[in-house]
Queue: 3 jobs
Job 1
Amino acid sequence: MNLVVGSEVLVAGKWMKKFVEVLADKTALIARSLEVVLTQIQGAIQEQGWCTIALAGGGTPKPLYEALASQELPWDKIHIFWGDERYVSPEHPDSNQGMARKAWLDQVAFPAANIHPMPTDGTTPAADAQKHGAQLQEFFGIQGGEFPSFDIILLGIGDDAHTASLFPHTEALQVVDQLVTVGNKDGQPRITFTAPLINQARCVIFLVAGANKQPALAQIFAPEADPLTYPARLIQPQGELWWLLDQSAGQQLKT
């Protein structure tokens, strides 16, 4: 580990705790992310009796899920969600749900009722986004217009600085009154948490690996840049914000 930065940043009148760590390699990145996630899970369960966690897709978090599968945790006290999902069936190789199930959820005694996937089998992506928003309202016991606070939301970034399925200059970036909306990747629909929902989280953890992410990170961490062009800049949660990077991704980072 060659960079560890902790700071408090004033966001919308509240102090956000921001942590940036650059780890030696991807193995060290996954080990550290496991530590952080376990600490957050245990803290939430100790405080309120349960933990809600929204998972990310992609290749970077997969070994984290495999590591979590080897832990002894009170699975009945953990509720699993997803921050975004491709509009495919769970059996499709591109499914974020399918990846997490194979790597983690199907490997342990997870109660089926504690797994809350995004629906992708309705009439339209918009209808399924609305349906999942209603499911979140019911689970968290909130009314329309309110945003729940997830205990943990895991995220990654793309080469274009997108996160979840919030892509540059797409309509999803403008949605501020819904929990879930439709993202668009080159004409392919996805379902995604909105930025306001993500920002209500108690802890957001970005996992980033690879030298190809350096240009995006430079813009995300720049003093000023357009968040509609670099959507990960929109993520400024009310709680803790963690950036865990491997050396290849973070070696040129200026915080």
Job 2
Amino acid sequence: MEQLGLSAPVIFFAAIFTNNILLTNFLGMCSFLAISREVRSSLGLGFAVIFVMTCTSGLNYLVYYYLLVPFGMEHFRFIAFIIVIAAFVQLVEMVIERSSPVLYVILGIFLPLITVNCAILGVALFMIIRKYTFLQSVAYGAGGGIGWTLAIVAMGGIREKLRGAKIPKPLEGPGIALIIAGLMALAFVAFSGMIQIQ
């Protein structure tokens, strides 16, 4: 079951830089573009994604290999993975609402939408496709979450700095955000020669 030649630390760092789930696989773009207007909200959502992605990658591994596979129900993996992710998002939502009501209001609708964040589901599916072990799956989930957070916080910082800049009228708003995302993706692709995980 183990992917040959790749240890958990290698998979962890590759998921952050060379195989960034957001900037090389382009998963989770909707919340990335919508929430990344400032660093604070980006960081809050990023920490929530790290927690959910790390925990659910381990739980989804266990559900898949110890519940679905033994009973020949692998075709239910999408439903099972979404149920596990939804349960964890509900937990994160309750914790943020009680501990930081301001962040809860800032994140708004995007906090419950972590449930359908395709980056989190993508990590769960990639770990099955690539036949990772439990430790590799958790490392990939944690690295994927940190990589996603790194990208959204960087975007939040850049967009905060651009508030006072003179941007051509047609590029204001989504236009400049997409250009920045494209340039960030090019920068992360430059790391791809270092480590590739397939």
Job 3
Amino acid sequence: MIKFFRHIRKKLLSENKFSKYLLYAIGEIILVVIGILIALAINNWNEGRKESVQELTILHQLETEFKSNLKQLDQKISSKKETINSALQLFKYIDNANLRNKDSVNYHLVRTIPYTTFDPIINDLASSGELRLISNDSLKQKLTFWTSAIANVREDEIQWKDYRDNKYVPFLVKLYQLRTLRNLANKSNVLGKYLIEDTKENEELNIGLTKHTEDFDALLNHPDYEDHLERCLTKSRHSINQSIILRKRIIEILDVLKFELK
């Protein structure tokens, strides 16, 4: 093809047909430009197709991750509600000594001790550069603020853990016997529900019952206990409120992903 065009050029020049040669040269330039544009269009189409495939893969991955995050968050909300219910029941026992019995007191005490952990999957698309592959601007924005959205939930967890470790548990150790409570927790796997990955290992761990006196009346009648219980209740309620806000954001992200994947 190149030899063919070269032959035409030589023929036109040898015949001194400059005007025809000029038109031919312009036409050849136009053909070259068209060829380049077609090549660029094909290349852009190929790149666009590749990015569309990448975007689809990312969207499927995000859907899986946020479904997992939602499941984990729902477990933590459920656990916090359980803590709140037990705290409220213990307040009843504080106010009404005639309602108390050892098994019930122990049952509810166990459920005020743990702290929940929310450790969601965080796919940081912004730092990896893959965020640009997502075409939906609304989804981009929601994903950009996802990392900061979980900060409040984690902050409540950390605050309660610190209070539990440094004040609540030491108080229980001083006023009560935790061996029986821990054994009860192991058998019912109540602690496993607060872990990222539930495990049945604790169910098989039997540390036995305490041989010392468990005076739950002394614990419930102590003036400081209701203050510790109030902290447990308030922190749990605040954590649920923050978790519900975060849950709404996860649902919004999943709704957009579902729409994009149709």
